[in-house]
Amino acid sequence: MSKMDNLRAMREAKYAESQKRAGSAPARPKAPVAPPAPAKTAGDPLAEAAASTDEELCGHRNMSGRTCTREKGHSAKSHRYS
Fold first, then answer.
1. Residue 42 C-alpha from the chain's centroid
2. Rounded-to-integer distance, Cα 80 and Cα 28, Å
3. 80 with 69: CB under 8 angstroms?
4. Quick one: 78 exposed, middle or buried, by C-beta within 10 A (0-12, 13-18, 19+)?
5. Dihedral (Cα; 50, 52, 66, 72), 10-degree rounding
6. Where is the composition biased (Basic and acidic residues) (predicted)?
C-alpha cells in the first residue's frame, strides 16, 4: 500500500465514523422562545416615531455595526450603510 492509499483509507474511516456519530446523536433541544413584547403606550410620540422608522428600514448590520438605510425588503443587491 502506498502512502496515498493509507491517507485515503484513514480519511474514509474518519468519514464513516463521523456519519455513524451524527446518526446516533440525540436531538438538540430548541432554543426558548422570547416572551411577546409588552403593548406600547399611545402617549409616547418618540417611541412611535422610532418604531415607524425601524419598520421601514432594512436594518442589516455590517461588521463595523453600521445599519442599512434602504427600505425593508429592498431589491438592490448591496446595502447602503450610515
1. 33
2. 37
3. yes
4. exposed
5. 170
6. 1-20
Give the cell for residue 55: 419598520
51 SS3 class: helix
Nearest 5°: phi and psi at 71?
A: -70, 155
The domain spans of the chain are 43-74+78-82
Instruction: List, for residues 13-48, the tens digit of each pLDDT value.
Output: 999 998 888 877 677 777 777 777 776 555 555 555
C-alpha 48/C-alpha 54 separation (Å) is 10
Q: How does 34-47 read in b/e, with b if 16+ C-beta sit within 10 Å?
A: eeeeeeeeeeeeee
Q: Label residue 55 by pLDDT band (50, 70, 90).
A: low
Looking at residue 44, what DSSP letter applies? Answer: -
